[in-house]
Amino acid sequence: MTQTDQDPAPQTAPARNGKVAIVTGASRGLGAALAQLLAARGHHVVAVARTVGALEELDDRIRAAGGAATLAPMDITQPAAMIQLAQAVLDRWGGCDLWVHAAIHATPLSPAPHVDPKDMDRSVAVNLLATHGLAVLFEPLLRARAGTALFFDDPRGGQPFFGAYGTTKAAQIAFARSWQAENRRLGPKVVIAEPRPMPTALRSRFYPGEDRAPLIPCMTEAERILAELSR
Predict the structure, then answer these.
(1) In the chain, what are the domains?
(2) pTM of the model
(3) 209/124 Cα distance (integer angstroms)
């Protein structure tokens, strides 16, 4: 991980709330918006994504607003890296208050039998297997601080040409719903939000040429989701 929270500007730094949020898929879209908003509200954000440049841009925005982040340029499908991440969070903070799981792999739209096997393998690895692996590692961190895991539904299962993405996203949410039902008494709390359409790179792959003007800005949607999360 890359430490980036040294010497925040004292004149702009918000009051720290002592909370820690891990955001997987933090480099762009809703994940980046949530990471930025959480940092502005006093969380220390552990921002996880593969794209170093996008993480650094996120860090610039966070620091400009007086927040603090630790960058973790890692691939969530690599178990050794995720074990290292979980251990680092445990050693430094003793747990985690919020895990935002915005990481997703979306293959090109294709008739179901024509999905490239490598694309299907990657979809399964990112959208399902990595989700399970992260839940294994992060559940103790979340329980240590009565934390919450936040997932995002995108019901595409069964829609034409969404065979790889729709199937694996539906499987991810089915896994999250099972975890949610199991933990109602002991925690961690599991929340499944359904974001409204936003002008993300992911959506532009699904709907090229779409008029993006009516779409909800990612930061607006992040504010709505966090408001619901705090109720």
Answers:
(1) 13-229 (3.40.50.720)
(2) 0.92
(3) 28
Question: Among the residues of 41-162, which ranges form H helices?
Answer: 52-64, 79-93, 117-123, 130-144
How far is it, in rounded angstroms, from Cα 163 to Cα 52? 30
Is residue 153 within 8 Å of 196, Cβ to Cβ?
no
**N-terminal to C-terminal alpha carbon distance within the chain:** 32
Q: What is the pLDDT of residues 93-115, one digit of tens each?
A: 999 999 999 999 999 999 999 99
Question: Taking residues 183-190, what's their average pLDDT?
Answer: 93
Confidence of residue 2 (pLDDT cuts 50, 70, 90): low
Q: What is the pLDDT of residues 152-172, one digit of tens each?
A: 999 998 999 999 999 999 999
* Alpha carbon distance 28, 197 (integer Å): 15
**Is the Cβ–Cβ distance between 107 and 151 less than 8 Å?**
no
Strand-by-strand arrangement of the 20-24 sheet: 2-3, 68-73, 44-49, 20-24, 98-101, 148-152, 189-193
Residue from 16, 4, 22, 38 nearest 227 by CA: 38
Q: Which residues are catalytic?
A: 165
Percentage of the chain beyond pLDDT 70 is: 93
- Determine the pLDDT at residue 231: 83
AA letter at 119: D
